[in-house]
Amino acid sequence: MSQNRLSTKHVLGIKYLQPEDLHLIFNTALEFKEVINRPIKKVPSLRDITVANLFFENSTRTRISFELAEKRLSADVVNFSASSSSVKKGETLLDTVNNILSMKVDMVVMRHPAPGAPLYLSKRIPANIINAGDGTHEHPTQALLDAFSMKLALNDELKGKNIAIFGDILHSRVAMSNIFCLKKLGANVRLCGPPTLIPKHIQQLGVEVSYDVRETLEWCQVANVLRIQLERQDIKYFPTLREYHQTFGISKSLLDSLDSEVIVMHPGPINRGVELTSDAADSDQSIILDQVENGVAIRMAVLYLLSSLRN
User: Fold this and answer.
1) Whole-angstrom Cα distance, residue 196 to residue 173?
2) C-alpha distances in angstroms, 240 versus 73, 246, 278?
3) Of 19, 25, 80, 311, which sits 20 to 30 A from 205 (CA to CA)?
């Protein structure tokens, strides 16, 4: 019998979700993908729900994607930015959220620089919490939309497929959520990047590690390329960006020289000319813009499924 409800009232990280939850989210997202591609893009599913978007870190794609998903579902939306709030005056996270909840908010989408902040909040307030990225810990909806995009691009389940994640694994919450998600879906996962940007003992999560870009591209069916997160790097992990690109960058000419065609992905924003050249990012092999569209459908699915738990 197929599952029709999530096993948890929050989406704090992929590690807290069951494989059945993932499939339920994907199936629900497929239905919403049809909705957002029709002339009338709104449905009344969250008409009586108020969602607060709490972003304590800068965000463009994720914040807009969530806000669009909420409005497509007819929710009432409250946007909060820490840079223009009482947080600057010393107000605590819990006080900030409790003040917002006193305005009868039902669901909270939160991005925070501290790992574990959404989990901390979920134990102290009654609202449903969706983690939109916490430090270098997890970014669950990004991993969900990445896996959903892979399934659609391959026109198949991900079990047994070879998926490679390239770049700055050490500082990436996207990488961690992708690893958890892909392993739960039965994929083979390989990480590729400079030794200084791959965490020690990461193989304990059931992934392979390689430092050879060409060999890894020959091995995989999907290449998920991550941004070099210079803003999180307090020391130099490689000599220069130019040298990084020469050794670990992916170009269209490199992709064309492979024995088989590889699907190229990137969660954005792209450092063009560093981890990925423009001709590779904009090529027919790239599904980067599909990821953006799929992100709205996935977030609609997550919001809808969590709201149904309130009934």
Assistant:
1) 17
2) 45, 10, 19
3) 25
Task: Domains for the chain: give ranges and CATH numbers.
Answer: 14-139+292-308 (3.40.50.1370), 140-291 (3.40.50.1370)
Closest CA to 266 of 188, 159, 175: 175
Is residue 245 within 8 Å of 275, Cβ to Cβ? yes
What is the arrangement of strands in the sheet containing 263-265, beginning at the earlier edge strand? 208-210, 188-192, 162-166, 222-225, 263-265
**CA 270, CA 161: separation in Å to the nearest integer?**
25
pLDDT score of 102: 83
Of 211, 141, 124, 131, nearest in space to 169 by CA? 211
Distance CA 181, CA 206 (A): 12
How far apart CA 283 and CA 286 sit, in angstroms, is 5
| 192-203: burial string, b at 16+ Cβ within 10 Å, e else | bbbeebbbeebe
Would you state the structure tokens that stand for residue 107, as one six-digit string?
Answer: 């669901």
The pLDDT tens digits for 249-268 are 999 999 999 999 999 999 98
The amino acid occupying position 201 is H
- Residue 215 CA to residue 248 CA, distance in Å, equals 12
pLDDT tens, position by position, 160-210: 999 999 999 988 899 999 999 999 999 999 999 999 899 999 999 999 999
